[in-house]
Amino acid sequence: MRLAIEPDVEVVGEAVDASSAVEMSRQLAPHVVVMDIELPGLDGIAATIALQQLAPAPAVVMLSMHDDASTVARALAAGAAGFVAKQHADGALLSAIRRAAQGEEGSDA
User: Fold this and answer.
1) What burial class does residue 45 get, using C-beta atoms within 10 Å of its C-beta: 0-12 exposed, 13-18 middle, 19+ buried?
2) Cα(72)–Cα(25) distance, rounded to whole angstroms?
3) Are the C-beta atoms of residues 59 and 88 closer than 8 Å to each other?
4) What is the torsion angle, in degrees rounded to the nearest 10, for the CA atoms of residue 15, residue 16, residue 17 and residue 22?
5) Phi, psi of 34 (to 5 degrees)
6) Has residue 105 got a pLDDT over 80?
7) Strand arrangement, sheet containing 59-64
8) Which of 37, 42, 81, 106 gives a 20 to 30 Å CA spacing to 69?
9) 3-state DSSP call for residue 39?
10) Chain centroid to CA 39: how far?
11) DSSP code per residue over 42-74
12) 23 has a pLDDT exceeding 70
């Protein structure tokens, strides 16, 4: 809900799981997808890899409660443009989304 009130952010969809997120991305072609790593069924890492196959591929900002170096590295290796730890998500998530939309990469873990 926080994202929806930002004047430069338009929320075009919300998925209940990773498979739905990939399918919605095919249909809606968002510029940026915020993806949790831990999701029912297909996990966020696998979904990020699948999203990279779309044309155009959306930038993916990974969100996780796990912010260890291994998790961050796996997310970035899967093609995520950014990584935000949930415990730092307030301002960091919005910043990561804006950077991803501009083609920048990074981690706010």
Assistant:
1) buried
2) 23
3) no
4) -20
5) -95, 120
6) no
7) 32-36, 59-64, 82-85, 106-108
8) 42
9) coil
10) 12
11) S-HHHHHHHHTTSSSPPEEEEEES--SHHHHHH
12) yes
The token pair that represents 52 in the structure block: 């990279």
Q: Amino acid letter at 15? A: A
What's the length of the chain?
Answer: 109
Encode pLDDT of 79-88 as tens digits: 999 999 988 7
pTM, to two decimals: 0.87
Query: Helix 44-51 vs helix 18-28: angle between axes, to the nearest 10 degrees?
Result: 20
- Kindly report the number of other CB atoms within 10 A of residue 77's CB atom: 11
- Residue found by looking up tokens 């706010």 in the block: 108
Distance CA 90, CA 96 (A): 11
Please identify which residue in the block is written with the tokens 């804006």.
98
> Chain-centre distance of CA 9, in angstroms?
14
Q: CB 68: neighbour CB atoms within 10 A?
A: 11
Element (H, E) at 97: helix 89-101
